[in-house]
Amino acid sequence: MKIVGLFEAKQKLSKIVSRVSQGERIGITRQGKLVAMLVPPRSEASLEKAFADIERIRKNARAPKSRKVKDLIEEGRD
């Protein structure tokens, strides 16, 4: 992973974005501390699969019949 300072990142943003789009990860520092990370995006297929999995789980989820929603909310506050 390449590390660049914030000033350099602002000056060379187009080049940095190009490198990230080719798969490289680039960290950005401010005053020597890592404050941001540029990473290539996930593929559309993996995002679509993740959303499909979430939707499948949501459709199949059932609240327990023996417990009330209010009780579950109170339990979550503990």
Q: Note the run of SSEs as H and E.
A: EHHEEHH
User: From the alpha-carbon coordinates, what is the Rg to the nearest angstrom?
Assistant: 22 Å
Low-pLDDT ranges: none
Write down the overall mean pLDDT.
Answer: 89
Looking at the overall shape, the CATH architecture of the largest domain is 3-Layer(aba) Sandwich
Percent of residues in beta strands?
15-25%
> Which structural class is indicated by helix and strand composition?
alpha+beta
Number of domains: 2
Describe the structure.
- This protein is an alpha+beta fold and 78 residues long.
- It has two domains: 2-38, YefM-like fold (3-Layer(aba) Sandwich); 44-77.
- It is 53% helix and 19% strand.
- It is built from four helices and three strands, in the order βααββαα.
- A three-stranded mixed sheet has the order 1-2-3.
- β2 (26-30) and β3 form a beta hairpin.
- The longest helix has 17 residues, at 44-60.
- The radius of gyration is 22 Å and the shape is elongated.
- The two termini are 41 Å apart.
Question: Could you give a short description of this structure?
Answer:
By secondary structure, the chain is an alpha+beta fold.
Keywords:
78 residues
Q: What is this structure's SSE topology?
A:
Elements: E1 2-5, H1 6-11, H2 13-21, E2 26-30, E3 33-38, H3 44-60, H4 69-77
Parallel strand pairs: 1-2
Antiparallel strand pairs: 2-3
